[in-house]
């Protein structure tokens, strides 16, 4: 390993390092028949990208806006959901729910490098960044293709470069927020004049703009967002971009966000539920694990437990208790049906005696089927400007 790292260091110091083309891998996109391209760098290129990210990330983190949450240290999807919940609870009723079409594949190299040059003056670093952008793609058919635009998904550096490109949107809308709507009195004054207020919440290439105003105000912002993204070579997806009212609800980062009347009262609250697509996705994973009767029971339980625990941990900050109880029953049925398929000669009574703890909980060699209903549900508190960074003094 030391020899390998020494060779990389020597090539970088001599200025002769050249990244290899990334290897193409096509994976299915969830919920569609289309496929998404991944670009897998070599181990050597990944090491250099990781080192380059350590240099660039603190520089650009100093400039990134607080409305951006994706692929950033100490920030997570729950922070973005909490901000949407906060503004949705304060008269921001219209939502521009937007998605950028093939964001990673269409970023303009020249526009991206212009933004990098504003903060980085070292020409060696700039050459490295440009070299990774222009490294090319080795397709699944073994053909080499040039990369005229985009930064391939799958690389360590790509998420940071995508955030640098999309910061043009953050800067445009956050500047409005800071100058025109920065204080409560400014926002109230604008509303008295019939003007709209808005707030951008972005997670990578998925973002929403919460609007306190009318539907026309939200539609006007849609046009403005498209104009801001155009110089970066990006455009909004017509199929996934829509203007909706908060009472109708929308999906964002796996959650269904909707304002509803609280049961037994006349007051309306904003609720965050696991979206139907998210529930369908976790059910499909459990079905796939419990499909082959030749798999050992311990392996099935371990895999199902990992799927359920990870999924429930992500959605435990929403209104998820009923969904967790449903998943408990669903996963138990799938595992029990799998056991009956695997041991066709066993009666139900004998099967429960051998594989069910306390006659119901499926268990084997100390591994018990995970119970999602026991996951504690709690509200995730909005942190806003209090989110720390690893480079804070």
TrEMBL record:
Keywords, alphabetical: Nucleotidyltransferase, RNA-directed DNA polymerase, Transferase
PROSITE patterns registered for this protein in UniProt: RT_POL
Pfam family, one: GIIM
One example GO MF annotation: RNA-directed DNA polymerase activity
Enzyme Commission code(s) on record: 2.7.7.49
Residue span, Reverse transcriptase domain: 8-257
Stored NCBIfam families: group_II_RT_mat
Name of this protein: Group II intron reverse transcriptase/maturase
Organism in which the protein naturally occurs: Actinomadura livida
Lineage: Bacteria, Bacillati, Actinomycetota, Actinomycetes, Streptosporangiales
